[in-house]
Amino acid sequence: WEHTDVSSGLYPLLSHFQTKVTLGLGPKLRESRRLRILVVRLCLPSTPPVTLSFSVPGPGLVHIAMTLDAHYLRGSMAAIYSLLKHASCPESLFFRFLATDGGTAPGVGELRSALAASFPSLRFEIYSFRADAITGLISASVRAALEAPLNYARNYLADLLPKCVPRAIYLNSDVLAVDDVRRLWETRLPAAAVVAAPEYCHANFSRYFTDAFWSDPDLGARVFAGRRRAPCYFNTGVMVIDLRCWRSGNYCHRVEQWMELQKEKRIYELWSLPPFLPLFAGEVEVVDHRWNQHGLGGDNILGSCRPLHKGPVSLMHWSGKGKPWDRLDAGRPCPLRVRRNDEDGQLVK
């Protein structure tokens, strides 16, 4: 963003879209001429041209997976724009969107048209996610939005994306990048790690699970015995996932097993997140906290404003109740200021 005050860049961008999105109508966010020039200038001409297909990825691509739906569409558009704006080579970003098709939700064709109209040069594909395949496994949550089947689509990335895609960055739709996402993409994933994400070991890990979990001799501490490190909380809104290891380890089925257990006997408290905790906590490859400045949506009851955590910022995450577009509609946006230094030590506003 070109302004120290992030809200001066974010909120006008989000305002391009109406609260109830009518796809194909109304004002559209368009690629700027400057953004198209950046693609030409920053993608090195000495690099051999990559022949791209929607099914077979070329070398050097950064695969970014996100979900798409009507309510979060403004957030998705802002996230896409921020990722392109700060990418060293925007043309190398390949977006792989997951969307439900059918019912009252906008169809894949409508979403495709909306994306193409706003970002004509965007490299992307949309994959249909069958909501009925997961509905029976979803437990009640503190927020209705977290019970939406699409919130669980991240569990099925390895099944939905082409098998030739080796890894993907998964991002929630309520994020903004202020750094080159390729730096996150280049996170080293050792053979023992399936997921890389920022960890938060200062959080009380035990509180994410119920007393029934910890008192069960077949669960509790036994689940985490033998892990590479002590288990810590991590947020699944920003992850680098080794899709080949996910497939070979049958993690899709293993996540479903934990969800089935949760339906029978409530063992955890955090909605769609905890199925990842018993599987990966203590095995996650650690990513710098700058890649998930989370919690900006405030608490889940009041949705009050929260400032950024201390430290450098590469990606901001409005996890929590207060999404920026909802705050705009309510006339109560939260001010947010971010400062970061580039590689030369110069202040970037």
Automatic annotation (TrEMBL):
InterPro entries: Glyco_trans_8, Glycosyltrans_8_dom-fam, Nucleotide-diphossugar_trans. GO terms for molecular function: glycosyltransferase activity. Its EC number is 2.4.1.-. The keyword Transferase applies. It is an enzyme of class 2 (transferase). Pathway: Glycan metabolism; pectin biosynthesis. GO terms for cellular component: Golgi apparatus. Keywords: Glycosyltransferase, Transferase. Pfam families: Glyco_transf_8. PANTHER family: GALACTURONOSYLTRANSFERASE-LIKE 9-RELATED, GLYCOSYLTRANSFERASE 8 DOMAIN-CONTAINING PROTEIN. Belongs to the glycosyltransferase 8 family. This is Hexosyltransferase.
